[in-house]
Amino acid sequence: MSTVVYVEQHEGEAQRDSLGLLSQAAGLGSDVCAVVLGEQAAAVAAGLGAYGATRVYVADSPALASPLPQARVDALEALISEHGFENVLFASSVLTADVAAGLASRLRAGLNWGLVDLRVDGGQLVGTQPALGDSVFVDVGWTSTPRLALVRTGAFEPKNVGGDAEVIPFVPEIAEWSTRATLLDREKTVSEGPAIEEAEIIVAGGRGLGAPEHFSVVEVLAAELGGAVAATRAVVDAGWYPYSTQVGQTGKTVTPKLYIACGISGAIQHKVGMQNASVIVAINKDKNAPIFDYCDFGVIGDLHEVVPKLAELVRQQKSG
Amino acid sequence: MKIAVCVKEVPDTSASKRIDPETLRLDRSGEGALNLGDTNAIEAALRIKESSTDCEVVLISMGPESAINSLRKGLAMGADRAALVSDPGAEGSDIIGTTNVLAAVLASEAPDLTLFGQQSADSDGAVLWAAVADRLQQPFMSQATNLELESGNAKVKRQTEYGYDLIEAPLPCVVAVSDGINEPRYPSLKGIMGAKKKPQEILGLDGIGVSAEETGTAGSRTEVRALNDPPARGESQVIEADGEAAARVLAFLNEKKLV
Ligand SMILES: Cc1cc2nc3c(=O)[nH]c(=O)nc-3n(C[C@H](O)[C@H](O)[C@H](O)COP(=O)(O)OP(=O)(O)OC[C@H]3O[C@@H](n4cnc5c(N)ncnc54)[C@H](O)[C@@H]3O)c2cc1C
Ligand SMILES: Nc1ncnc2c1ncn2[C@@H]1O[C@H](COP(=O)(O)O)[C@@H](O)[C@H]1O
Q1: Which of A46, B44, B66, B155 reaches 20 to 30 Å from A117, CA-CA?
Q2: Looking at the partner chain, which of B18, B170, B233 has a beta carbon nearest the beta carbon of A294?
Q3: Interacting residues of A150 by C-beta distance below 8 A, sequence separation 6+
Q4: Phi and psi for B121 in degrees, rounded to 5?
Q5: Shortest CA distance from B16: residue in chain A
Q6: From the CB of residue A87, how many other CB atoms can be counted at a distance below 10 Å?
Q7: Cis? peptide before A146, omega within 30° of 0
């Protein structure tokens, strides 16, 4: 089985999950190539042999400079039609997911997403896709080639085993319509307050708070416990709380001793950022919320009653 | 101006979902509901409609015939009409089968702007727009936390792993919105009454010119091979809130020596 791993890079640095995927693919036993696109692709390519790539294809053109998906689909289509790769593997990110799905459509190829494992079983590529809030683990396969796979954030650890790869530049043709979307600006985000990555205790708030001013409920409990405040993307996108406090796939990964989730449904993209907390406590009024499937202690109820009361009890205990 | 909004019916969140061990497909026999993230896309369309003079909002969906009930909620919010592709031949579609159907409908509707929601609650894919846009050869922008139309262009702010990007594309284009982009309105009583009378079309594959080989199980390139239990996890305790809930949380935290 010939395999190519799409390695996403940001400002000349390979995305960690792409390296993990490359390591995993190299462990499947066959020849593994990598492809890196965009400005500084060549700088990234040089280091990929260490993670198991034998050949690395690189392309850099003005159309690939911005982190936009469509020109990347053109480049990958060209690469795959020339080399006939059977497996095309991607590690999830906002950009990569869009590239993978666009490519699936272009090639009329099967795409399985959200995978937490990839293995060869009886000569066939098989993926593990947790479904329905991770309540069932589905073995998924492909009925034609190329087989496209998107793996979940944090699925595989990078393994630097040393080694060199041959770096091969290529020049893809980019269609006019693939460059119609343009990047106007990138917003640099500045962190405010203590970094949540360092905190031993985190109290996090989601849309269940109901309104931005209700973040005070979460802040008071965090202050009593000596912890930091975090948020979900839903409330960050809505402008309720700063991006620097967001936990999850497109936010931060945190590993506190205690994570208290208030009014958070526990979507997969949030879970990947906090599932390694030692203890998870959840307060949510919906008994079917996915967060209850992976918390250590859950309360089905109104956070506006439970959380202020808890803060008060903690204060009493400390002063008593 | 015409805006198409792709929406999906998903199993109601209050029901526990399951995959049928016989068919290896999601059991859709229970109550269905409009996918919550798609109401943000409808809301975004309605706001554009309200700020322009001549704008039609069309809901487009593929799913079982019963999905028309979910589409009616979108009509009650204020969309003008709905087109649902429902055909036994489309059952079991993966991303390619679904793309072939939606792209065919969109090609004939020819909207100026096509909107998607953030993700479907039952598949968690968050990818379909990219596949559909590629088939239509239109630019697309995903994860939009903000959407503005300005002199023939759509301008979007998207969140990625590295912060926010500002992106622009000329119409016609495809935009997938974040569930934080707006607060979807509730249908008014008048909206609910009026929804029944709005045009609601149910189309078969024949009606949209898609052959049975291009969709459903036949048109799909992926398969489900087996269902397994998730890995076992440690003890967990979930309680119903009563007057004592906060005290019990504190007792738990004390037991774990976290306070
Ligand atoms: C590519 C991609 C990347 C993403 N990245 C991230 C990320 O980095 N981080 C992230 O968080 N999300 C991310 N998401 C979004 C994620 O899928 C969810 O949409 C988001 O996490 C939901 O946030 P929430 O839990 O605050 O809101 P909701 O899902 O709306 O949940 C709110 C919860 O509050 C409960 N509630 C309501 N009122 C009360 C009350 N009074 N008391 C108690 N409970 C109440 C409700 O029952 C509900 O469960 C991403 C999505 C995609 C597609
Ligand atoms: N069967 C469908 N019919 C119409 N639109 C859909 C369908 N499935 C998904 N969508 C749209 O695509 C978005 C992303 O879906 P997904 O990639 O399945 O998570 C949803 O929020 C909807 O806007």
Answers
A1: A46
A2: B233
A3: A90, A91, A92, A96, A97, A100, A111, A112, A113, A114, A115, B127
A4: -65, -25
A5: A288
A6: 22
A7: yes
Tens digit of each residue's pLDDT (9 = 90 or more) over B216-256:
999 999 999 999 998 887 788 999 999 999 999 999 999 99
Q: How many CA atoms, within 13 angstroms, populate the side-chain half-sphere of residue A166? A: 7
Ligand 1 pocket test: which of A215, A265, A275, A291 has the largest number of ligand atoms within 8 Å of its C-beta?
A: A265
CA distance A201 to B258: 8
Specify the pLDDT at position A134: 86
What is the reported pLDDT for B75?
Answer: 98
CA distance A10 to A170: 20
Name which of A33-47, A93-107, A184-198, A236-250 the model is least confident about: A184-198
Mutating which of B23, B43, B157, B221 best tests the A interface, going by the most A Cβ atoms within 10 A?
Answer: B221
Per CB-CB distance under 8 Å, the chain A contacts of B231 are 137
B97 within 8 A of B214, measured Cβ to Cβ? yes
Q: Residue B85, Cβ neighbours under 10 Å: how many? A: 24
What does the pLDDT look like over B94-145, one tens digit per residue?
Answer: 999 999 999 999 999 999 999 999 999 988 899 999 999 999 999 999 999 9
Mutation test of the interface with chain A: which of B24, B26, B95, choosing the one with the most A Cβ atoms within 10 A? Answer: B95
Nearest to A195 by CA among A154, A227, A241: A227
φ, ψ for residue A177, nearest 5 deg: -70, -20
Strand partners, B155: B148, B168
For chain A, give every residue range classified as CATH 3.40.50.620: 3-179
| pTM for the full predicted model | 0.96
Using CA atoms, how far apart are residues A189 and A270, in angstroms rounded to an integer? Answer: 20
**Token digits of residue B134:** 């590629």
Q: Does domain A201-319 have CATH number 3.30.70.2690?
A: no
pLDDT for res B15: 64
Q: Where in chain A is the domain with CATH 3.40.50.1220?
A: 201-319
Looking at residue A192, its pLDDT comes to 62
- Residue range A3-179 forms a domain whose CATH class is alpha beta
Verify cis geometry, omega within 30 degrees of 0, for the bond prior to B172: yes
Chain B residues touching residue A70 (CB < 8 angstroms): 133-134, 139-140
Read off the pLDDT of residues B56-98 as tens digits, 9 standing for 90 and up.
999 999 999 999 999 999 999 999 999 999 999 999 999 999 9
**Quick one: how far is CA A254 from the chain centroid?**
13
CA atoms within 13 A on the CB side of A167: 16
**pLDDT above 90 for B26:** no
Cβ distance B126 to A136 less than 8 Å, yes or no, reads: no
The string of pLDDT tens digits covering residues A6-49 is 999 999 999 999 999 999 999 997 789 999 999 999 999 999 99
| Residue B75, amino acid | L
- The CA-atom distances, in angstroms, between A58 and each of A12, A38, A106 are 13, 8, 21
The whole-angstrom separation of Cα A29 and Cα A175 is: 36
Q: Which domains are assigned to chain B? A: 2-214 (3.40.50.620)
